[in-house]
Amino acid sequence: MKKNILSIGLSLLSVVAIAQKKEVRDAGKAIEKGSYAEAKSLLTEAESMLGDANDNVKEDFYVYKGQAYLGTGEGTSVKDLMTASEAFKKAEELGNAEAAAQGLAGITNSLIQSAINDQNAEKYDMAAEKLYAGYQLNPKDTLYLYFAASNAVTAKNYDTALKYYEDLKDLGYTGIETEYLAINKTTGEEEAMPKTQRDLMVKTGEYINPEDRVAPSKAGEITKNIALIYIEQGREEEAVSALEAAKEANPDDTSLMQTEADMYYRMGKKDKYKELMEQIVAKDPTNGNLYYNLGVTAFEMGDSDGAIAYYEKALKYNPEMTEARLNIAAAILANEAKIVEEMNTLGMSKADTKKYDELAEKRKDVYRKALPYLETVMENDAENIEAIRTTMNIYYQLGENEKADALKAKLSAQENK
């Protein structure tokens, strides 16, 4: 008996369609049970026959594929998350916008939470990769790109960081945004939240003192990092050009002058750094941090007296600055080296012995001059090991053994914690 070839073909198509629907349906059931690996296997079998399926089956297929590759979202690889995102986008094209939106939100949450975990574990390369993937999924959320760049810098992955920063620059990203703040009456803490929520909480009386605060522009910081990456890569001319272009585009951005100073510092051009920093100080003469930075540079350039003067000014405007006091003590004690060097050149003659005694007393004067700064540090920060160790050694040199022994015991207790 002759059989109609067309009928046979149609029969085979029906069998394929039935099998395909069963595998897609079974994949959905596997997902409901949390058997994501099983669902992936079933969907892989169905995918080879997907071209002949109707749109309803295709829609279900892509929704399930997205869900299978997303899984619980915990510990899911970036590769699987991106596969899931492509599947959800296909589902959206086929008409299931609700499932697609829910799935894509789950992927974003997974990426960002995983990136935060990576940051906390100091896995900055992995955090950068996930944050960038989050940005690719949500191109309007440029903050993800900004944080991806920051993590890439911390990971010293400068090529990747440079690409991200240049993308931010091309997008005109500034990071300027309004924060809506209010004080929680129960805790007394200031909290940020969406404006509508903040206003409602203030109306109910749970929060007080509402304030709208505009975050400063990050444009200068982005340019700074681009320039510093160029310097790290030995591309100094490009660093200077990048900064000059930024200054032309943002003539009122005073942070760029600080960026320029930092750039010359990194290049080793300390004189140029000092010149720019003094210009910055003239614009902001009560900023203790600026004087502190000038003190660091002056000390590195061999100007101990100038460094001390800058540190003293830093303390005038920021009396709690521990590092400034420690650095003043270090700058004072730096004078000891010359005294010791001269003592070591002396012989055994009567004149040399007299000179040695004079220098020994001069050396003690150096110790006495540094001591008050170190003692103040310990008063403000009783567990500062650097201050404890240095003060202990000075007490021994000055013959104040009882005080030195007390600090030695304290130091030992600190180091054995």
Could you walk me through the main structural features you see in this protein, from its secondary elements to its overall organization?
A three-stranded antiparallel sheet has the order 2-1-3, covered by helices on one side. It has 20 helices and three strands. Helix 8 runs antiparallel to helix 10 and helix 11 (236-249) packs antiparallel against helix 12 (255-266). The protein has helices at 5-32, 36-47, 55-70, 78-93, 97-120, 124-137, 142-154, 158-171, 195-204, 219-232, 236-249, 255-266, 270-283, 288-300, 304-317, 322-333, 336-343, 350-380, 385-397, 401-415, and strands at residues 178-184, 190-192, 207-214. A hairpin with a 5-residue loop joins strand 1 and strand 2 (190-192). By secondary structure, it is mainly alpha-helical. Among the domains are: 9-121, Methane Monooxygenase Hydroxylase, Chain G, domain 1 (Up-down Bundle), CATH 1.20.58; 178-214, no CATH class. Mean pLDDT is 86; it is low at 1-17. The termini are far apart.
Key structural traits:
disordered N terminus; Methane Monooxygenase Hydroxylase, Chain G, domain 1; 20 helices; 417 residues; three-stranded antiparallel sheet; mainly alpha; 4% strand
